[in-house]
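pasting for ref
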Amino acid sequence: MGSSDATRELTFLLAEPERRLLRKIAVRLPAWVTSDQLTAVGVLAATGAGVAYALSGLHAGWLWVASAMLVLNWFGDSLDGTLARVRFAERPRYGYYLDHIVDAFATAAIGVGRGLSPFVSLGVALGLVVVYLALSINVYLESAVFGAFRLGYGRLGPTEVRLILIAVNAGLALHGYIPGLGAMRIRLVADTVFAAAALAMLAMLTVRFARDLRHLAQLEPARGARPERTAAPFETPRDTSLG
C-alpha cells in the first residue's frame, strides 16, 4: 500500500524476487479473498507470534509456532497491497493509513513478545522497537516531503528481518536451551546483539536525518539567505500510500 505520487525505492536483498513471488500468488488467489482480509491475517499472525514468544519460556516448541506466525504475517502483510494492484482495486490513502498503523502494531506485538521470552530482556526489546518505529516515521515523512518512498536504510528489510528471526528461532529450538544458566547466557548474547542493532539503526537514522534536513534547507532556504543553487519549486505529493 503506498502513494499514487511517491515513487517506491526498495533496495532490499530480496525485494525483486519477493515482488515477483507475491504477484504470482496474488493472481492465483480466489475472488473471495480481499486485501482487508489479508491485512487482518497479518495482524492476527503478528499477535500470535508475540504470544508464542512469550510462551517460549515454558517450552521450546513455541518457537516453532512463533516462526509459523512470522511466515503467516509475511503472507498477509506483504500480499494485501499486491492483491489490490493486480485487481486494479487500489485505495492509496486508505491503504497507506491502514498499512502503517498495522505495521506499527505488528512491530510492537512481536517486540514485546520477544521481550517477554527468556531470551531477550524486555527493556532491550522495547528499545529496539522504539528505534525501529522512529526509522519508519522518518520514511513516512520523507514520502510526504520528497515524493519518494525510500523504505530501506540498507539491504535488510522486513522480509529479511523475518527470515533472520526464523533462523534464530530454529537454532534455539534445535539447540534445546537449558533453563537457568543456559538461558541467561543466551539472553546476554541476545541483549548484546539487539543493543548493537538498535545503536546501528539510531546511527543510520541520524545520518539520514542530517542529509534530509540539508536537502530541505537547499530547497527552502531561510529568508534573506541566498540559495546555493536554483531549486525546483517544492511540491507536496497529493498522497503518499504504498498502493
